[in-house]
Amino acid sequence: MQACEQVVEYQLFVGVDIAALTATVAWQAPKQKPSKPIIIEQTPEGFSSLHQRLLRTGAKPDHMLVVMEATGIYWLALAAFLARLGYAVSIVNPAQAHHFAKALLKRAKTDAIDAQTLTQLAALLQPDAWTPPPAIYEELEQRLTQRESLLVMRGRVRNQRACSPTQSGRGSPRPPTNGGPG
């Protein structure tokens, strides 16, 4: 006897075009045209604002499919945020999205058009949902970011010390030590 997979009937399809500092987002209900795209900041406040906007459509997070391209590391924070809130998030290869757009004969390429195209890809192909990494990965990423910041700060301090007059041999000589001529 085979176990039946639960099939979700999505009420909303969301396409997200990711950039380093912003994300362009469009959505559509089944058999509808994509919405006019909006732009959000790649910040916790921007993510919360998107969540509130999507809730205002009337669909519940577990009945929304969010599709975004795997663009560098920029997609990870938003994808993890939405997955924690119960959204079905699908990460697609940029080549897949590119070929889908070509199949639709889309020649222009803007963030807004890309977001709408990803919305259509979500509605037509309904790619499998992504499984976020365990929480330990997020903590590790935070610690590595902190380490990088400390290394940058250490480098700056070393550069400042190397350029100071007393360290470079320029400027006034050091005062004599006890017991020496003076």
UniProtKB/TrEMBL annotation:
<keyword id="KW-1133">Transmembrane helix</keyword>
<feature type="region of interest" description="Disordered">
    <location>
        <begin position="157"/>
        <end position="182"/>
    </location>
</feature>
<keyword id="KW-0812">Transmembrane</keyword>
<dbReference type="InterPro" id="IPR002525">
    <property type="entry name" value="Transp_IS110-like_N"/>
</dbReference>
<feature type="compositionally biased region" description="Polar residues">
    <location>
        <begin position="161"/>
        <end position="170"/>
    </location>
</feature>
<feature type="domain" description="Transposase IS110-like N-terminal">
    <location>
        <begin position="14"/>
        <end position="160"/>
    </location>
</feature>
<feature type="transmembrane region" description="Helical">
    <location>
        <begin position="73"/>
        <end position="92"/>
    </location>
</feature>
<feature type="compositionally biased region" description="Pro residues">
    <location>
        <begin position="173"/>
        <end position="182"/>
    </location>
</feature>
<dbReference type="InterPro" id="IPR047650">
    <property type="entry name" value="Transpos_IS110"/>
</dbReference>
<protein>
    <recommendedName>
        <fullName>Transposase IS110-like N-terminal domain-containing protein</fullName>
    </recommendedName>
</protein>
<keyword id="KW-0472">Membrane</keyword>
<dbReference type="Pfam" id="PF01548">
    <property type="entry name" value="DEDD_Tnp_IS110"/>
</dbReference>
